[in-house]
Amino acid sequence: MKKKLILVAALGLLSAFAFAQEESADAPQSKFDFSASISLGTDVLPTATLGKSEAWTRLGFQPDFSFGKIGLGLDLSLRFKLYPTNDQAIEVYGGDWIPNYEGNGKSFFDVYLPKFLYVRYGVKGEDSLFAKLGSIDDLSLGDGFIMSEYSNMRFMPETRIFGLDLGLDGQLFNFPYAGFELLTGNLAAFDVMGGRVYGRPLVDTSLPILKGLQVGATAVVDRDPYRYADKSGATPLAVYGGDLYLPILTGKVFPLAAFSDLAFEPANKSMGAMVGAGGRLISFITYGAQLRLLEDGFIPSYFDANYDIYRADKYDSMQEATDGSFYAGWYGSLGLSLLEDKIVFRTSLDGPFKLAPVASSASQADYPHAKAILRFGKGLVGGFFADASYEKYFIGRQSPFFSDLVDPTDAVIGMALNYQTGASVITLNYSAKWDSGSDSFVVTSSLEASMQL
Question: What is the spatial distance between Cα 180 and Cα 287, in angstroms, rounded to a whole number?
Fold first, then answer.
């Protein structure tokens, strides 16, 4: 009951903020829009039997409403099998609509909150007040040294999770000295929760660069590290720290910012620090670099894009003894953003300035880690558009660096390939996630045809 009251209060407060802001906007700019899509496809989902999967036909209806900065999308999908047995005409997948279906442990909110595909207000980085609820793949706090691009979408299409990212800058009330951001990966469980508060202590000075200085504090907690693992006995795990962020150059052509972080992981009494810079060159080249000083056992960006997949493994590595020594680490990123972000490519690589451990280690920070994403937008090649990603952990643990980099072991691979003709879109989704428990991939995929109304 307490969780329900907190959830209702949070949504009510958000709605009040949103509508108050919308009422103050210029009325002619507010416009109501409605659209919807109908889809028919196939989802291949893993089963309780290791290495087995089942194909379910999915019929979906996704209405979409928008009014000014406010948007709402629903996902009313039904998965079923026709004639699964000789004496049964149809079998409906109850996990989409029935709480605790076949003992899967899902509550009322686990099942019905994800029927909201998204709820949004404003845009992060552009509006003083923004909120995004639903499926989110870019939950970051500050410059990402604690939480970087955390995603609650790693179990789709099997399971959709409903999260929240809410931010308020004091500039909304002509008070530019402070702001905050709050988030949770799952509003039904409140398992991964975090926030950042920041101040601009020099905003009133006449110094052109120091006016934008931000001093921030971040904390993130996982109340249930074994939530997606067949284990029990984990205690809550927290990471917290402070940061400085200084925009040196502004504008769209050559933006540049410098930043620094100090973070603590009490689970194994380790700490880490970094200084870095990042920005763009001639509008379309993105880059970033960091130098890190890390204590043995500390994991930078602990809550990363694939945290939900590896959260139990990370928690277990935090229980291992550390020797208290420090070592230097590094991070670098480089990317391209062309044709108004219709083509986006970004790659990053990070690791320690030390040799790989002689004995195999379970800590991700002991090995290099790589990530690459590619986005190919609409309108470039006929009706084709696509997204792809590849993230590799523990590079060098199994074999030399370059051969291990392309070995899919300990990797997470994703792809969405689309073809649009008129109002119809055919979509192929594919995801392969390495499961360290079984030393094999968990593969999910879906194929659907949808029509925009």
Answer: 26
69 near 29, Cβ under 8 Å? Answer: no
Q: How many domains is the chain built from?
A: 1
User: What would the DSSP string read from start to end of 1-44?
Assistant: -HHHHHHHHHHHHHHHHHHHHHHHS-GGG--EEEEEEEEEEEEE
DSSP string, 335-385: EEEETTTTEEEEEEEEEESSPPPSS--S-GGGS-EEEEEEEEEEEEETTEE
CB of 261 closer than 8 Å to CB of 273: yes
Whether residue 365 contacts residue 352, with contact meaning beta carbons closer than 8 Å, is answered with yes
User: What single-letter amino acid sits at 29?
Assistant: Q
- Per-residue pLDDT tens digits for 40-51: 888 877 665 555
3-state secondary structure of 381: strand
397-447 confidence digits (pLDDT tens):
888 889 999 888 899 999 999 998 888 889 898 888 887 777 788 888 888
Which segments of 170-211 are extended strands (E)? 178-184, 192-199
CA distance 361 to 317: 9
Residue 382 CB coordination number (10 Å) = 10
Which tokens in the block code for residue 287? 């880059």
The domain of 134 spans: 2-452
* Residues 301, 450: Cα–Cα separation, whole Å: 37
Count other C-beta atoms under 10 Å from residue 55's C-beta. Answer: 14
**Secondary structure (3-state) at 361:** coil
Nearest to 59 by CA among 26, 28, 27, 82: 82
Helix locations, 286-439, DSSP H? 307-318, 401-405
Alpha carbon distance 289, 256 (integer Å)? 12
